[in-house]
Predict the structure.
Amino acid sequence: MLKQTEHKARSGYGKRFSGKSVGVVMRLDAANLGGFLWARAALGLASAVGAGFAFGRGWPLLGLLATAVAAALLWRAIRRERRRARWSARLATHPAGEGGAHPQPAPGRDPGEAFAAATRLIDEAPRAMLLIDSEGGVAFANHSARVLLERDPAGRPLTASLRDPALVEALAAASPRAEIDIARHGPAARLIQAWVRPIPPGAVSPPAPAPKLKALVVMEDVTAARREAEIRTEFVANVSHELKTPLAAIQGLAETLQGSAREDPEAQARFLRLIAAQTGRMTRLVEDLLSLRRIETDEHVPPRRIEDLGAILDEALSVVRPLAEERGIRVEADDFSACPPIYGDRDQLAQLFVNLLDNAVKYGGKPGGPPVRLKALGLREGNPRLVGAAVQDRGPGFEDHERARLTERFYRVSAASSKAKGGTGLGLAIVKHIVNRHRGVLEIDGAPGKGARFAVWLPTAPATPQPPAKPAAQLVGGAAKAGAGARAGA
């Protein structure tokens, strides 16, 4: 207790005694200090008696030591008594607040300075925080909130940034307190969890004539966590459904090899080729599902790296052209050297264009027929911040009512043709989610017998030099090996 008291005195507790807890501690210390002082005095007296005894017996060194100990203990007792007297006087001058009330700001402190100090502290918080005034406006938004909302909502009504009826209703209460899930719609849907808590009257507020603060809103983006749970559920369901057919085929072929084809080398060779084909189909399916899962997990985080669109398209062409030549199909491309730089994820964009080109070659190209075209679209009319590229073929196309479903998982215009050519039904779903993550636009046009056109618009970036990125050859090669999906759910 004595060491605790010393520490509190040195750390500044003696400067202000306005809190109840501090006052209680000091009363306890002052009440118990007398016992310590009498104990030290008794020890000092015992040491003095011991010194007299030692000198009387002819032990001078022991007598000197006992005398020194007695003097030190008595001196410390005197100092403690003086300190206790000072504490008692200060405690009488600065009584503790009644009912455990919080300390009030020092008289004469500028409210503007107090508010500025509070906002500086909140601005460093890792979670998004909004200070809401009594009129429903945003008095302050910290850095995390500005990043989450992609704007600074301060000085405007909260509904200008967050339009959620449950949040508005909670803030309208006299003492707002709620936990709310806020869904934000757009190219990349986001889910924000918000906690609303009241700000006590008389707390720090902006200087007049600004309205008083009413509530604190703390927000956290839980999109990734919720999406992760949904993806796991969908992943299991999709894999179970899609793997059922190839597993049944492999099981049937294996039983045939064990039975009637046991002594037939030709049948064995044919059945083993079929087993290898079904195994490859399962492998491509799992790879595409894992790729889609990774893309969806990061979809709410737009890439900020500056990339060269022309270089990415060259890599995609280098992968698809050999596959097209094997089928006798030509692939022609415009010059993209004049394209402005873009914000993008190099590996994902390479995968996107490999998927589109591979779909066009497999399902829209014919040996000796019209070529598959990779066209430069330039800057988008009406929105020059987007630059585009399109993949066009002259294949069978699709009906107008199928357009909206082309990017659904496992949707196929021709299921038999897709499976026969190694499609997984995930190619365009991957394309859609990559475009969403890049905050771009995907346009799909086509008609029966007239082919299809897939245009991708991506946000441009300032022409700032960037260090070279890791080549996407490994990812692109893997996408090509997997068949890169198929058109209409390839």
Remarks:
- Confidence is low (pLDDT under 50) at residues 1-37, 94-103, 468-490.
- Residues 20-56 form the longest helix (37 residues).
